Amino acid sequence: MLEQNMDRIRKELIEKWIELKPKTTPVIFTTINNKTVAIKDESINETGTYKAHHGWMMGLHYLQNQFPNPFIYYLGSTGNAGMADFAFADKLNDLLGEQKVTIVNFYPEHYDSKILGPDSFGRFTDGKRIRLAMEKYRSGKLIRVDFTKTYWLGKPCIDKMNELGICANKDNSLDITEGFNPTYTRVMFDFIEQIKSEYKKYKNFPTTFPKTLAIIQFGAGMLYDDSELVVKQSSLDIDQSSLDIDLCAVSTGNKDTVADKICDSSESWQRSLEDLKNKGFTFAKKSGDKIYQVTEQDILFALGQFRQLGRESEPSGAASLAHIRNLDDSVLDRYDLIATINTGNGIKSAAFDSLLNY
User: Do the beta carbons of residue 339 and residue 215 sit within 8 Å?
Assistant: First the structure.
């Protein structure tokens, strides 16, 4: 009887949590280099970036797998993922009526002095302001660590938490640095549906799906991998038989650019940063897919495009749009549409405290 009652409560909580799922974000159509471009704008998510999905998935995972026990989720994040997880953990604990879930964010200690920006409106912030904004969430704990000495995944994190009096072990905690499997499929599923319904209105196009090149940021690979999964699944659906999408991954390969958040400085997900910088491409370790380099000048160009559109974007959020100017005519001519994702403008959270009043 007790177990049946708990299952009923869990089901009710999941139904309420689904109501808090990040809303579908809009698609903007514009023209760049004489090509029609569709931009999915994740900057208007309540946490400012597509990382809202990361935080929401955390809550769903808890309700499905760990409820009603206290549980710790931990990750290494320079801001956006940690901020989203902190915000959604507060929402989850409010829903539960007590503090059951704790998020521990391992934050690079050198980030306090790091200047972040510019965004598309020329604004800058710094790591200290982001850290202070994150520390205001009651469900999150932020641990400042040296990112140059240890790769903060798994055991080093558990050891550090216990050293600081946070009782964590393999049974009561989970590393979510690399997200859930999958984490971001909702972004691409919605994007495809929006292209299907809105492109034909924008271009007075027939009902067939436009031949599309989707350019996706590749940092840790999660957004790209989940987008690729959606495209593959959709192409197998009998109702999506006309779907025609190619994917292109982009990254900087240089942590010293303004878009350091899509630089795999540990080479955990990309085979060779040297190739990315010197040859202009490398390959993903997991899938073997080709990853193309975007430079700082490419990204500044893209930020200018977002400014003209009146949309907020941080450098990493603009990286997919940045690659358009690197595509030669022989590539552009093969496609009806270039699709990109503005992954957001997380730095505005520290500049305006916009995430503190969700």
Answer: yes
Number of Cβ within 10 Å of residue 202's Cβ equals: 14
Residue ranges of domains in the chain, CATH in brackets = 8-50+182-351 (3.40.50.1100), 51-180 (3.40.50.1100)
What is the pLDDT at residue 262?
74
pLDDT digit string (tens) for 291-343? Answer: 999 999 999 999 999 999 999 999 999 999 999 999 999 999 999 999 999 99
Are the beta carbons of 356 and 283 closer than 8 angstroms? no
